[in-house]
Amino acid sequence: MEDLKQIPAFKTSPELIEKLQQYGIQKNYDAGSVILNENSHIRSIPIVMKGTLKVIRTEEDGREILLYYVKTGESCIMSFLGGLHHETSKVKAEVEEDAEILFLPTDKVSLFIKEYPEWLDYIFRLYHKRFEELLEIVNAIAFKKVDERLLNLLQKKKELTGNKVLNITHEQLANELGTARVVVSRLLKQLEEDGMLKLGRNKITLV
User: Fold this and answer.
1) What is the mean pLDDT of each run of 10 residues along the chain (207 residues)?
2) Which structural domain, as residue segments, surrounds residue 98?
3) Are both 199 and 184 inside the same structural domain?
4) What distance, in Å, lies between the first and last C-alpha atoms of the chain?
5) Which residues are paired to 45 by β-bridges?
6) For 90, 98, 100, 204, which has the most beta carbons within 10 A of its beta carbon?
């Protein structure tokens, strides 16, 4: 319950916090765990208590692209929408950092919308934030070069983890950017030569 009290949207409603605690199921996940696959039925909504999730879209040819991160205190708006309309998931949600997640059954999501204005405000704020982030993705794909997108992604991961040493492979970065591994490897080598970072075995150190 103490973790829920730290979420700004819930601070003014002890009753909402009590209901979330009553109906929610909390689980722990290691980094790399997939909590939701594309085309899966959405039976509960995840609220991240600790850690980070990344939400990914996969194309038919197997290529992936990172849509946005879900940080502590946030939820996945795509899960909200799919759960409310009884649709299957259009995205995959994977744990980026070890996470504690509170799962709220979808029937309670609808009920809370009617009973608690704070819950509705929480959903709208998340929707607004994700919409802006998706616009940034569209803008980056349309107008930015891959090297700029790569550097932005590395900086974002640094901010999320609070660590300039990132344990990640070239393949993972390529998947999140929706490009080929050889392209990422070439660009990382160029960034290293430019003094922007240092490459190691499955890790990248930002300078």
Assistant:
1) 78 91 95 93 93 89 85 91 86 94 92 92 92 87 87 90 90 88 93 91 90
2) 2-141
3) yes
4) 39
5) 104
6) 204
Output the pLDDT for position 78: 87
Q: Largest Cα–Cα distance of the chain, in whole Å?
A: 57
pTM to 2 decimal places: 0.80
**3-state SS of the chain: helix, strand, coil percent to 5?**
50, 30, 25
Structure tokens at 139: 């803008």
Domain identity same for 104 and 122: yes
Q: What is the 3-state secondary structure (H, E, C) of 118-185?
A: HHHHHHHHHHHHHHHHHHHHHHHHHHCCHHHHHHHHHHHHHHHHCCCEECCCHHHHHHHHCCCHHHHH
Q: What is the DSSP letter of 88?
A: B
